[in-house]
Write a structure and sequence with these properties.
four-stranded mixed β-sheet; 2 helices; 157 residues; mainly beta
Length: 157
C-alpha cells in the first residue's frame, strides 16, 4: 500500500491554494475564493471615442469620458466591467491574442447577434452544433477586434 496523499497549503495575498500530493504526483489543485474582480478591459483603438460608443451600446454602459486619445465606458451593472480605450500608438498586431466572450440567456443569442450587427459588428462565424453545452457566434467590432456571444442551455435536473 502506498503512502497517504499529503495536502499542502500556500497563501498569496487573499488566495489560498491547496495542493494534494500523492506518490504519482499532484492529484488536484484548488484555489480558494479571492476578492479579485474584473474592473476594466483596456483596448488599443484607432478611434477611441467611436469604438467606446459602439461598446457602450453593446454593454448598455455610458461613455463617461472621451477625447481623441482616450474614452471610458462605465460599468453598467453589478458583476459587469468597464472598458477603457486608448489611441493606438503602434501598428495593429497581425493576430489578436485575446478576445471577449460575452454570455447571453439561452435562446437570445441570435437576436443579440442581429442587434450587434445593426450597431456595426460583423458576423465572422458560428459554432452551433459542435458542443451540447454551448452555442456561440464570433463577431468583430467596427475596428476588427474579435469577440464572441455565447449561450448555454439551462441546467437539467
Amino acid at each position: 500500500m502506498g503512502a497517504a496523499p499529503v495536502t499542502s497549503r500556500s497563501r498569496f495575498g487573499n488566495m489560498v491554494r491547496s495542493t494534494i500530493h500523492s506518490k504519482g504526483g499532484t492529484v488536484m489543485e484548488h484555489a480558494a475564493h479571492t476578492s479579485i474582480t474584473l474592473g476594466a478591459i483596456n483596448v488599443d483603438a484607432d478611434d477611441p471615442p467611436t469604438l467606446a460608443r459602439f461598446w457602450s451600446e453593446v454593454l448598455g454602459g455610458v461613455v463617461e469620458a472621451s477625447s481623441a486619445d482616450f474614452a471610458h465606458v462605465a460599468n453598467s451593472q453589478p458583476g459587469g466591467f468597464a472598458m477603457f480605450f486608448t489611441a493606438r500608438r503602434d501598428a495593429r498586431p497581425e493576430q489578436q491574442t485575446q478576445h471577449l466572450d460575452l454570455t447571453v440567456p439561452w435562446g437570445s443569442r441570435a437576436d443579440e447577434v442581429e442587434r450587434l450587427t445593426s450597431l456595426g459588428a460583423t458576423l465572422q462565424w458560428e459554432v452551433l452544433d459542435d458542443y451540447p453545452w454551448v452555442k456561440w457566434s464570433t463577431l468583430t467590432d467596427p475596428e476588427g477586434n474579435l469577440f464572441c456571444v455565447a449561450e448555454h442551455p439551462p441546467a437539467h435536473s
